[in-house]
Amino acid sequence: MNPGASNFSQGVDYAFYVIFGISVVLLLLVTITMIYFVIRYNKKRHPVAANIEGSVTLEIIWTVIPVILVLIMFWVGYIGYVPMEKVPNDAIEIKAIGRMWSWTFEYDNGRKSDRLKVPYNLPVKLDLISQDVLHNLYIPAFRIKKDVVPGRTNTMWFVAQKMGSYDVLCAEYCGLRHAYMITKIDVIPEEEYWSWYELPEDSLKIDNVELWYQVTKANGCVGCHSTDGTKLVGSTLKGLYNSKKIVIVDGEEKEIVADEEYLKRSILEPNVEIVKGYSPGLMPSYINQISDEDIDIIVKYIKSLGDEEK
Ligand SMILES: [Cu+2]
After folding, report:
1. Which of 114, 160, 175, 177 is the most buried (most CB within 10 A)?
2. C-alpha span between 147 and 141 (Å, rounded)
3. Which of 173, 199, 225 is the endpoint of a domain?
4. 58 with 135, same domain?
5. Ligand 1 mean position to 182 CA, how many Å?
6. 209 within some domain
7. 225 alpha carbon – ligand 1 mean position (Å)
């Protein structure tokens, strides 16, 4: 196992090794005793079974020792856990938004990214928000993990103590493409963090397809909508613009053209006009989840992927 990269790594690893050590010792004791008894009390050596009476001393021993062991395990877990719930007041606050099937990180100035950027050696607090179902934010190298529950904001915090990039996963099965909810946390020097954080918003709006793609990705679209024509859970974005689609509205089929208005409506209320052949209810509504600017950029990006019928 790699050594941890956060302020909690040591405490969690310590608890792990103590519990693991106690378990190994018990396993060996039980196994060795069992093998010894099988040989020692074999029927050939012991043709007549002995009637063994109870022993108060033994009962006390095998009650007291396990109680002490369990309390030791509780204690090492407890002292590792308590600091995780004490968020320092000066922690940098970042929203971690989970949805089927991607993560978006939103910083307090409105900046969004699909990789979590954090400064080295400063406390960071994550507000865990789900747009649809139960997810779980898991950073193995930091030894932290917490449920992301729709309708309530859980929090977790950490201090990143090693520079580098580490995996961020969803650890709660959340449907078909759950395994794709994987991204990275980048621990970078403080100055680099602030210059990234303050990158002028305008830099995202210039006419650059790659930046439009980054905005689309940061909003979680490409987790379900491919950009190369592949059919995933959602329809591909390639050739989507201005294509004719049969949609289901209130159970009735209707032909529409996927123009700008339709695309915008579908981002905000994706389940009203579902394209025939796709399951309703999979895409969360983006009402209050996305800025009008981002919608415009996403629509621009979809337009850039062509308008020929796929
Ligand atoms: Cu998930």
Report:
1. 160
2. 17
3. 199
4. no
5. 9
6. yes
7. 16
Question: Quick one: 188 and 100 in the same domain?
Answer: yes
Full pLDDT tens readout for the chain, 310 residues: 567 889 999 999 999 999 999 999 999 999 999 999 999 888 888 888 888 888 999 999 999 999 999 999 999 999 999 999 999 999 999 999 998 888 999 998 888 888 899 999 999 999 999 988 999 999 999 999 999 999 999 999 999 999 999 999 999 999 888 988 999 999 999 999 998 888 765 555 566 777 888 888 888 888 888 888 888 888 888 888 888 888 888 888 888 888 888 888 888 888 888 888 888 878 888 888 888 888 888 888 888 887 754 4
Task: Please report, for residues 23, 28, 63, 66, the alpha-carbon distance to residue 60 in angstroms, rounded to integers and kept in the order given.
Answer: 21, 22, 5, 10
Q: How many whole angstroms from 180 Cα to the centroid of ligand 1? A: 9
Quote the CA–CA distance of 263 and 224 in Å, as a whole number. 15
Instruction: Label residues 276-303 b or e (16+ Cβ within 10 Å = b).
Output: eebeeebbbebeebbeeebbebbbbbbb
Q: Do 178 and 274 reside in the same domain of the chain?
A: no
Tell me, yes or no, whether 66 and 98 share the same domain: no
Question: For the chain, what is the domain count?
Answer: 3
- How many whole angstroms from 249 Cα to the centroid of ligand 1? 29
From the CA of 283, how far away is ligand 1's center (Å)? 13
Domain boundary among 85, 105, 138: 85
* Enclosing domain of residue 227: 202-304
Please tell me the distance between residue 244's alpha carbon and the centre of ligand 1 in angstroms: 32
pTM: 0.71
Q: Peptide bond before 101: cis, by omega within 30 degrees of 0?
A: yes
Give 177 Cα–ligand 1 centroid separation in angstroms: 8
